[in-house]
Design brief:
four-stranded mixed β-sheet; five-stranded mixed β-sheet; alpha/beta; Peroxisomal Thiolase, Chain A, domain 1; binds oxa(dethia)-CoA
């Protein structure tokens, strides 16, 4: 028994913040942002929660899969920016979609690797035979935890949602997943407050992403190179067997480095970071949906999904689409 992606969906909120808009907010330039990150614009959720963004992405994915909401028996929601402390965003999404069949629903928090963690988890549930049809979500409203006066981070992040429907199948779909973490790197990338630590900052609306960008950058490039090797070796594959790289969209220079490691032309790399910046857990399913809907990714293609983020966490999935 395998799990197979039968539908993809995504959603970006309407409001757009361009690099030129940011020039008016902090000491930066369109040229610096483009050259150092590849980002042109990001989308900002206004009066929309994370589960609201996810709802649109989920409906699009269900439609592509030809499934109705109550066919879903498992919802796994990757987010670092949940609507509430509880109920989970997965439960709130379940309510929005009108799923009343008792489907299991829970969140996963692995920051930018969240979607890969969620996909890996859903794959194992389906392979075990316990569940048949999973909705796997990556959605974020990071704009709520961005310090809009910090030019080192505010130019990077945006809001969005992506989703896949994962179904039990006799045909191979998810070929392997690889997830890892190393919790010793807290100080390089974190939000400086939570419920049981610095709660007063959270209450004051001063809980912000803090990042030592250059150090994170170097770790990301090194670690993603290793996960590519691990994934290929586990599947006895060569670099040339990968049709599409679908990377986490944090920085075009990190994506270029991974593509170079795979000796892959950028024509075979799905790049959407220019359009929405770093949407953390949403970025991989957003990129996947974009390339599925514009016809680049075709059934039968072999995809390598990979991500790296806060924790540190990192992971990959090898997928026969
Ligand atoms: O998704 C999870 C993982 N996150 C990431 O993967 C992000 C990883 N990091 C990065 O993408 C990059 O490190 C950044 C884009 C954040 C920064 O690029 P960098 O090439 O590493 O720049 P830097 O931090 O070394 O800074 C270079 C210079 C500094 O000025 P000085 O000290 O050389 O005078 C910064 O103050 O660029 C300056 N700078 C800026 N200048 C204009 C930093 N941010 C900006 C800005 N506009 N927005």
């Amino acid at each position: 028994m395998f799990s197979r992606i039968t539908g993809t969906g995504s959603y970006l909120p309407e409001k757009i913040l361009t690099n030129h808009d940011l020039e008016k907010m902090v000491d930066t330039t369109d040229q610096w942002i483009l050259e150092r990150t590849g980002i042109q614009k990001r989308h900002i959720a206004e009066n929309q929660t994370t589960s609201e963004l996810a709802e649109v992405a989920a409906l699009n994915a269900l439609e592509m899969a030809g499934k109705s909401a109550n066919d879903v028996d498992l919802i796994i929601f990757a987010t670092t920016t949940p609507d509430l402390i509880f109920p989970s965003s997965a439960c709130l999404l379940q309510k929005r979609l009108g799923i009343n069949n008792g489907a299991a629903a829970f969140d996963i928090q692995a920051v930018c690797t969240g979607f890969v963690y969620a996909l890996a988890t859903a794959d194992k549930f389906i392979r075990s035979g316990s569940h048949q049809c999973a909705l796997v979500i990556g959605a974020e409203t990071l704009s709520n935890i961005v310090d809009w006066s910090d030019r080192g981070t505010c130019v990077l992040f945006g809001d969005g949602a992506g989703a896949v429907v994962l179904e039990a199948s006799e045909e191979a779909g998810i070929l392997s997943t690889h997830i890892h973490a190393d919790g010793t790197f807290e100080d390089l990338l974190k939000v400086n407050a939570g419920v049981s630590s610095n709660y007063e900052r959270l209450k004051a609306g001063e809980a912000f992403i803090q990042m030592r960008g250059n150090e994170v950058f170097r770790m990301a490039v090194k670690t993603l190179g290793r996960i590519v090797d691990e994934t290929l070796a586990a599947n006895n594959l060569q670099k040339t067997d990968i049709d599409w790289l679908v990377p986490h969209q944090a920085n075009i220079r990190i994506i270029n480095a991974t593509a170079k490691k795979l000796k892959m032309s950028l024509d075979n790399v799905v790049i959407t970071v220019d359009q929405h910046g770093n949407t953390s857990g949403a970025s991989i399913p957003l990129a996947l949906d974009t390339a599925v809907r514009d016809g680049r990714i075709q059934r039968g293609d072999t995809l390598l999904l990979e991500g790296f983020g806060g924790g540190f966490t990192w992971g990959s999935a090898l997928v026969k689409f």
